[in-house]
Amino acid sequence: MKKHINIPIFIPHKGCPNDCVFCNQRKISGTLCFDITKVKYEIEKALETVNKDDSTVQIAFFGGSFTGIPREEMLFLLGIAKEYIDKGLVSSVRLSTRPDYINEEILNILKSYKVKSIELGIQSLSDKVLLASGRGHDAACAVNACKLIKSYGFELIGQMMTALPCAAKEDEVFTAKALCKLGVDGARIYPTMVFAKTELEAMTERGEYIPPKLDELTDRTEAAFSVFCDNNIPVIRIGLQASDGLGDADGITYGSYESAMGEMVISRYYLNKIKALLKEKTEKLTVYCAVGEASKISGHKKENKQKLYQEFGIKQLKIIESKDITPYDIRIE
């Protein structure tokens, strides 16, 4: 199977006049400005490192609401991408946008420029959470955008967040289940972080928002993750990617940022699966898992092992990788 490679072109906050309470897009993307004249250079530079014989390559416009940028800029960027598609150097285009910047006219344009994948920043499908987060649209708008995207045959990636203002675990599980029913082809889950110079920072300082502790944040994110796993929907990202600047004065000011959040959530998922399968205390336990998953079953800093020892009286725990087991599945003896 060929590897999937994205050539990311970041367009921070372009096309989005809305200011969500949590958003500091320039810091999240790691890009303070966008120079449209350097896009070809960035693509050429990236292609030099790609083995096209064993890779499927997409040009990915990330960071902003791509379909909301000025139309001439959007067409210019799509035109550049199509040049590389026509040359056979990349296969298609991926982009991220908002539900309220999706309509039939836009989707017809994207189709003509060989866009394959649309990542939709849904965040929540609870109206109270969307309102408290300042998203500027309601859940019905997001649902309609998902249905329209799927009707055009695009690959749809649903982006959701946990621990938003006014949200509870139940809201996040509801959002994950709804996205599965809407037919998403993949998902990203982003636990909420409090960035400097955002309204959420001010809300936190006024006591209107209380960032959850790391354990609660992990638990809530795992609850959403497990919904996607149970529905065979791949989760392609959990948590913000570690990058320079996240810890400085303009980065995260409150909350439980953890660069290993993805691993911690998956480890919690495995722990919950093991506990569900164990009916009684036992001194010896063997867990069979997919190749490459043993460390996640042990847990972040072997946390899972310690919890199993304490809760079930286990004295000997073996974790054995097997080619016969698929990721996120386990068998115990």
The low-confidence parts are: 26-31, 244-249
* Count of individual beta strands: 12
Give the strand order of the largest sheet, numbering strands 1, 2, ... along the chain.
1-2-3-4-5-6-8
CATH architecture label name of the largest domain: Alpha-Beta Barrel
The name of the CATH topology of the largest domain is TIM Barrel
Distance between the termini: 33 Å
Kindly report the average pLDDT value.
90
Number of helices: 12
- Write down the CATH class of the largest domain: Alpha Beta
- Percent helix, as a range, is 25-40%
CATH superfamily of the largest domain: Aldolase class I
**Topology order in helix (H) and strand (E) letters:** EHHEHEHEHHEHEEHHEEHEHHEE
Main sheet overview: 7 strands, parallel
Shape: globular
**In the residues, how many domains can be counted?**
2
